[in-house]
Amino acid sequence: MIYVILTAVVSIGILLGVVAFSASMYHRACKLNPYNLKKSRLEAAITAGTSQLYMLRNEIKHLQEQELEVKRIIDKKEAMEKFINDFQEEYDNKTKLFNDINNDIEGAKDKLEAANKNIEEKNNEIIELERQIDKGNKDLNEAERKYQEICEKINESNDSIEALKDEIETLKVTRDDLNSEIRNLENEKKQLERENDAARQRKSEIGDAIKAAQDKLVELTSEINKLTVEIGGKIGMREGSQTRWEDLDRPYFNVISETPETDDENRMLEDFSETLKDSKIIFDDRIINAFHTGLKAEDASPLVVLAGISGTGKSLLPSLYAQAFGMNFLSVAVQPRWDSPQDMFGFYNYMQNRYKATELSRMLWQYDIYNNESAANNFSEEGDLPMNIVLLDEMNLARVEYYFSDMLSKLEIRRNITDRSSAEERMPAEIEIEGGAIGDTTSARRLFVNSNVLFVGTMNEDETTQSLSDKVMDRANVLRFGKPASINANMNISVFNEKYPKAEFNMQLKQWNRWCHSQNLNPSFRNMLDEIVSHLNDEMANIGRPFAYRVWRSIETYVSLYPGVAAGDRGKFNAALSDQIEMKILPKLNGVDLSVPKVKTALTSMNGIIEGVKDQKLSSAFENIISNTDNVFFQWKGVER
Prior knowledge:
Number of strands: 9
CATH architecture of the largest domain: 3-Layer(aba) Sandwich
Number of helices: 19
CATH class of the largest domain: Alpha Beta
Shape: elongated
Number of domains: 3
Mean pLDDT: 81
CATH superfamily of the largest domain: P-loop containing nucleotide triphosphate hydrolases
Order of helices and strands: HHHHHEHEHEEHHEHHEEEHEHHHHHHH
Oligomer: single chain
Largest sheet: 5 strands, parallel
Helix content: 55-70%
């Protein structure tokens, strides 16, 4: 500011000096020169003064601007000094606060150390509480199981009580009649007591006679058995040793050497589906793919079951499939009286001393290259064996476990054989065919059922049939046939026969094996499968219905073999997984009490998992069961496709 004032004063002084000098020079000019000279010099002095004045004005303006700038700098300096003072004050406050915090931290360290010790004690208490909770959960699960059993017994008891009430009323009506009859019987009793003494003597005589007759009957029975064996042996000696197995040794199918023109699985499956549609034979594509995949998965699930109402084509589909794919087809009609494996394979007639074979045992023996010398001569290696489909028609007219359980076990053992040419390894998987006197194992034949035989069963679900046990369900893929979409079926089987003439070619086992063992899940699908199935099993365990490794292996095998999955088709993967949820998992929930809170929670969680598979029909069928308040127990009916 002072600098500006001094500069202004100096500038004004200079200006005044210039003016004074100009005036002095003017006066001199006036004295020395005439008028023109005086005028000329005066004009020059005025011009110089004007120019100098202009310069001074610019200088003053510049000084004024500098004055404003100086003012701004001074204001900024004052503001900065105020900021520094404020900052210093705040810094002092923060320093004091920091010191206070340090003091608090020192105090908190002691508290933290005490708290850590307390936490350790609490953790020990928590471990103990968790142990007690775990024990409590086990006790709770056991209590819930007993509660469920009691509820079931109560329901049964309620039904029994109603029946008993009706029976009591009936008994009341007959009680008086019985009382009257009792009085009559008492009178008769007195009469009979009088006659009893005489009857006792007669009874003793009759008892002695019966005992003598029984001893004689045992003696005669033993003699008859000896004569039967002797006669049978003589007949066998007279007719030759071949007579015993003549029935079994008769081949059932003709050997066809021709093979399919192509072994492209997808092409053959698409042609089959299109030909069915052209023939007006209506099967949903999901059913066709599921049936085809179920047959391929026979190593993990050796039985495919087609269930549903009568007249939906359950028996037709396997026969048409066999015809289209070049497989022998044998239909076996199951009878209600079947109660042992002999009903499937035949029996030994001791009177005739020969084995009475069935069509099934003849076919199996025809292709047993390890025990049948004739079969070994016809087929140089196992891969040359023709494929066969055996249909157990209406298989649940009798208890499946009675006649087919042993076969299922043999088929399950078969997959663990590493060297089928080894008789010792094959033995646990072979069926023994009785061939002579009971206990004479040297006269028996052994039958090995190879992988070229695929088993399919049909079952009608009505009040006249038997249900499948868990053993059969775990080892089977069950496809359910619902009501047809249209009852105006007008199929034209001649179109199908024209496309696939019967007995034209045979698919060989080596071609079938290429379809069954060449496909693996990619890592993405495998991770999804593991996650979804594991979550479902966790919820099943919460309900008390978990499944084990056998079911998991069956699911994995089926999904990996489903058409299109190996190519990375996510839609096909979802379809295969939803099939297995429907076939393998949901039937295990049958009979679960839907009113139990824990069950409701688990089923709701399962519903969310199933929705993620994106099968609308499966999701709707499951949700309809768990959301229907009229349902007391879970009952899985399958999905209509």
